[in-house]
Design a protein that fits this description.
Helices cover 74% and strands 0% of the residues. The chain has 472 residues and is mainly α. The radius of gyration is 22 Å and the shape is globular. The relative contact order is 0.19. The structure holds phenylalanine (PHE).
Length: 472
């Protein structure tokens, strides 16, 4: 492959009949709002809507929430800002941006890890997103009533074990994401986010208002907000909060570096990082206020984990008045959240390919989309035809991919990135790139990158290693 490290990718993705906004470069965000909503669309995903709620529930409710907020502020915001700043100052996608920080040292290869994690995560994320689309169709068509007779748990198990149908929905979700990425940064990703994020907010508000009318609202809210302080004695709770903050903000996967490279010089990055973190957290809390009141109102178990969205909630919706409408709104919300996250993940390998090859954006996008579909096939078959393939701890292929990415690679890459950006990126360059104007704040930001993040993340990696031996 030909290397053109200094040139920006040719942006062939803009449809000839659909010019970018006047004055906007097609591989740049046309507006501050477009960038913010795209970054928020990336952060808000399947992780916010159900993972946050059950992790909070298992780890002391309000006590977890406080720790989570502390982690988002202390670790999430500084790293998010560092990723944006690195992208904008180098104007390159993440592999090249990281290469440029330390071109003469072995650290220059670190960008590959982000690219590998983004690819791995998207491969199985798309499979789960396919399940969401299938369940959306059940609620739109009313066929969820037949599943109820079969029992939602049995129906879900039977569905994911089928060889072909889940692959079709998984492919459909990837087709949508690829079509958006093929159109380009402005005409595809930015326009999608501008259109869908308000829809997502409206659906969420409607669902929370509906939740407030349910008899279990108070219990649900108490479950989420009432602090059980004993939780703070358990180190695992701190790790859970840190891990959730990482995944939910979409850090250490090259996404925010790549998105940062499309940011115009005038945009204020510190404000963007704060707003994205705040918005992402608000969505997570609001999703908890949708899910728990419903779960408590209909006598279900809130600590269901992965089954929650596909087994417990459909049962809850089936018992509800207006269940078809509420279920449709819920799965539409999940599908939109998943799609905007998938688009951001897909942009990472596509931007890399555009820089490293002479391919046009549509060709690079469709080739990457096809490859990712193939990588997801084993994850999907792992529930049926290939369910015999298991890790020593009994994980099927999708769970193993998720575990490797979220529990091992993400914290490790976060640690290495913090070390690289805190120590090898010249401090003056970093401070100038961050756009922080206030001297003390700039010092605090750089200090957290240099000391706080490495210490916290090293502790997390050590705890993971100690706790996970033999669990893979
Ligand atoms: N943050 C997304 C979620 O909460 C997942 C994601 C991770 C998206 C990394 C993009 C990059 O589901």
């Amino acid at each position: 492959m030909r290397s053109r490290p200094c040139s920006r990718p040719p942006e062939a993705g803009v449809h000839p009949g659909m010019p970018a906004s006047p004055g906007a470069s097609p591989s740049r965000w046309a507006s501050d709002r477009g960038f913010l909503l795209a970054a928020l669309g990336s952060a808000v995903g399947l992780g916010n809507v159900w993972r946050f709620s059950y992790v909070a529930g298992e780890n002391g409710g309000g006590a977890f929430l406080l720790l989570y907020l502390a982690m988002v502020l202390a670790v999430g915001v500084p790293l998010l800002l560092a990723e944006f700043a690195l992208g904008r100052s180098t104007q390159r996608e993440s592999v090249a941006a990281i290469h440029g920080v330390a071109p003469a040292s072995p650290w220059r290869h670190l960008g590959w890890l982000s690219l590998a994690i983004a690819t791995l995560v998207l491969a199985y994320y798309a499979v789960v997103a396919g399940w969401v689309l299938k369940y959306l169709s059940h609620f739109v068509l009313g066929s969820y009533r037949e599943l109820r007779q079969e029992g939602f748990a049995a129906a879900f198990g039977a569905y994911v074990a089928r060889p072909l149908e889940p692959l079709a929905w998984h492919g459909a979700m990837l087709l949508l994401a690829t079509a958006i990425v093929a159109k380009g940064v402005h005409a595809g990703i930015e326009r999608l986010s501008l259109a869908l994020m308000p829809l997502l907010a409206a659906l969420l508000v409607a669902l929370v208002l509906h939740g407030a009318t349910l008899p279990g609202f108070t219990r649900g809210a108490a479950f989420l907000f009432q602090p059980d302080w004993r939780a703070w004695r358990d180190p695992a709770v701190y790790l859970a909060a840190l891990g959730q903050a990482f995944f939910s903000l979409g850090l250490a996967m090259g996404v925010m570096v790549t998105f940062g490279s499309y940011v115009a010089p005038a945009i204020r990055l510190p404000r963007a990082a704060l707003l994205v973190a705040l918005g992402d957290t608000l969505v997570a809390v609001a999703a908890g206020l949708v899910i728990f009141p419903a779960v408590f109102s209909f006598g279900q178990d809130p600590a269901q984990g992965p089954g929650l969205a596909f087994v417990v909630l459909p049962e809850v919706f089936a018992q509800m008045r207006w269940g078809a409408a509420v279920g449709t709104a819920f799965f539409l919300l999940l599908a939109v959240a998943a799609l905007t996250s998938m688009v951001s993940l897909l942009e990472v390998p596509v931007a890399w390919l555009l820089r490293r090859s002479a391919l046009s954006r549509p060709v690079a996008s469709w080739a990457t989309g096809a490859l990712l579909f193939c990588l997801g096939v084993p994850a999907s078959l792992g529930f049926g035809a290939w369910s015999g393939l298991r890790t020593p701890a009994g994980r099927n292929l999708l769970d193993a991919m998720d575990f490797a990415a979220v529990h091992v690679l993400l914290p490790l890459n976060g640690l290495l990135l913090a070390l690289l950006l805190g120590w090898l990126w010249p401090k003056r360059t970093a401070l100038a790139a961050s756009g922080i104007r206030h001297g003390a704040l700039a010092g605090a930001w750089h200090g957290s990158l240099r000391y706080l993040l490495p210490v916290l993340l090293a502790a997390m990696v050590a705890a993971m290693v100690a706790g996970s031996s033999g669990r893979f």
